[in-house]
Design a protein that fits this description.
This protein has 125 residues and is mainly alpha-helical. It contains six helices and three strands; from the N terminus they run ααβααβααβ.
C-alpha cells in the first residue's frame, strides 16, 4: 500500500485518538502528510496526566510491539522517519518492556529495521 492509501484507509475506518478529544486519526494523518516540510516525526505521548489513569502504561507493559507497529505504520503514512516515545520515569517496567520490544523487533522485523535505518525510535527518559 502506498502512504496515501494507508491514510485513506484510516480515514475510512473512523479511528479516533485515545485522548480526551478523540480527534479523528485519519484527519490528523492527512493533515500531517500534507504539511509543508521534509522532516516529520511520530510522537507517542505515554504520559498520563490524569490521576489514576493507566491505559497508556498498561499497553506499553502488556503489548509494546503494538505501540511500535502503530508508530511504524503512522510514520510510513505521514512520511516520518523518526519517532519518540515519552514515558514517565515512574513507569520503569513500561520503559524496560518497550526497549526490549525495540531490540526484538530490530532482530526479527524488516519493517522495523527499515524504519530504524532511516531514523530511530527514542525513549524518554
Amino acid at each position: 500500500m502506498t502512504p496515501d492509501l494507508v491514510v485513506n484507509e484510516i480515514v475510512a475506518s473512523g479511528l479516533r485518538g485515545r485522548g480526551g478529544a478523540g480527534f479523528p486519526t485519519g484527519t490528523k494523518w492527512k493533515l500531517t502528510r500534507a504539511a509543508a516540510g521534509t522532516k516529520k516525526y511520530i510522537v507517542c505521548n505515554a504520559d498520563e496526566g490524569d490521576p489514576g489513569a493507566f491505559m497508556d502504561r498498561s499497553v506499553l507493559e502488556s503489548d509494546p510491539h503494538a505501540v511500535l507497529e502503530g508508530m511504524i505504520i503512522a510514520g510510513y503514512a505521514i512520511g516520518a522517519d523518526q519517532g519518540y516515545v515519552y514515558c514517565r520515569a515512574e513507569y520503569p517496567k513500561a520503559v524496560t518492556r518497550l526497549r526490549q520490544a525495540i531490540g526484538q523487533a530490530e532482530r526479527t522485523d524488516s519493517s522495523v529495521r527499515t524504519f530504524l535505518a532511516r531514523g530511530s525510535i527514542l525513549i524518554s527518559p
